[in-house]
């Protein structure tokens, strides 16, 4: 609609399109910083979704962060139409920057079907009234309101935490799934760190951390400007890698999405 201001996520998903190649607009950030993984993951899902027929919604995505991206340069998202089925469509996306792949993703889209609705309902690790407002020193955190446990005095937002967008996102399932993908990359890396390793290494430390891969399963409709609780639990540490599983719940305790990530921690 003419004259209606787009949300920040819709703006990030405005591409220059050449057939099934989608070119992003350069994103500004601090000099020398690595491209936020949640950003490029959301853009990759947005490009894949733009090639899918009406009525098919994101079901899951599985991606590898092949190498670090850079701010200030465009990214080409090459979409491969792996399969178009009656109920499911599958897409592969390769994100390329300066001629080199920085991300590989497989995404599945599904026509909603009626069926049983079941999931575990564990007690929250932190309730919304007990959580404290926080403005973490992480990229794009200003797009969100975040409330963490009172004892989280780090510069990050360490799960469990509550989160919602400051502004409403358009009532579009793909845009909202991309928003969920974006925020799902907040938190997993700190939870994946080995015991005894400081969350904020001293200057000059050789400690290095980075996301290696990331998965999201979309279970139910997501309303970004409503409060959601993100729980992330460590599953394994070994071979300089930490594996975590995340669960995103709405305010009523309904499971909205499940995530998984493995992070590299070199100490």
From TrEMBL:
Keyword Transmembrane recorded: no
Q: Which UniProt keywords apply?
A: Hydrolase
Q: Does the keyword Hydrolase apply?
A: yes
One function term, GO molecular function aspect: fatty acyl-CoA hydrolase activity
Q: Where is the Acyl-CoA thioesterase-like C-terminal domain?
A: 134-264
User: Which SUPFAM superfamilies does this one have?
Assistant: Thioesterase/thiol ester dehydrase-isomerase (SSF54637)
Gene3D superfamilies per UniProt:
Acyl-CoA thioesterase, double hotdog domain
| GO BP annotation list | acyl-CoA metabolic process; fatty acid catabolic process
Q: What positions does the domain Acyl-CoA thioesterase-like N-terminal HotDog occupy?
A: 31-110
Q: Which Pfam families match?
A: 4HBT_3, 4HBT_3C
Q: What family, per the record?
A: Belongs to the C/M/P thioester hydrolase family.
Protein name per the record: Acyl-CoA thioesterase
Tell me what organism the protein belongs to: Mycolicibacterium vaccae ATCC 25954
Q: What is the lineage of its organism?
A: Bacteria, Bacillati, Actinomycetota, Actinomycetes, Mycobacteriales
């Amino acid at each position: 609609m003419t004259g209606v201001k787009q949300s920040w996520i819709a703006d990030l998903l405005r591409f220059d399109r050449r057939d099934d190649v989608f070119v992003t607009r350069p994103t500004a950030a601090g000099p020398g910083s690595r491209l936020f993984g949640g950003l490029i993951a959301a853009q990759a899902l947005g490009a894949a979704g733009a090639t899918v027929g009406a009525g098919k919604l994101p079901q899951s995505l599985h991606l590898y962060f092949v190498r670090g991206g850079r701010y200030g340069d465009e990214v080409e998202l090459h979409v491969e139409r792996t399969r178009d089925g009656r109920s499911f469509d599958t897409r592969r996306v390769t994100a390329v920057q300066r001629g080199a792949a920085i991300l590989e993703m497989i995404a599945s889209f599904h026509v909603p079907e009626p069926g049983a609705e079941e999931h575990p309902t564990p007690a929250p690790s932190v309730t919304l009234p007990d959580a404290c407002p926080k403005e973490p020193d992480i990229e794009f955190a200003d797009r969100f309101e975040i409330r963490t446990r009172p004892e989280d005095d780090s510069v990050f937002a360490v799960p469990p935490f509550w989160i919602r967008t400051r502004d409403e996102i358009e009532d579009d399932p793909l845009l909202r799934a991309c928003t969920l993908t974006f925020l799902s990359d907040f938190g997993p890396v700190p939870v994946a760190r080995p015991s005894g390793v400081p969350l904020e290494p001293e200057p000059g430390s050789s400690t290095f951390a980075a996301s290696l891969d990331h998965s999201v399963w979309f279970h139910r409709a997501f309303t970004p400007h409503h409060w959601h609780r993100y729980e992330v639990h460590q599953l394994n540490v070994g071979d300089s890698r930490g594996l975590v599983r995340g669960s995103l719940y709405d305010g009523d305790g309904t499971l909205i999405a499940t995530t998984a990530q493995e992070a590299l921690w070199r100490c």
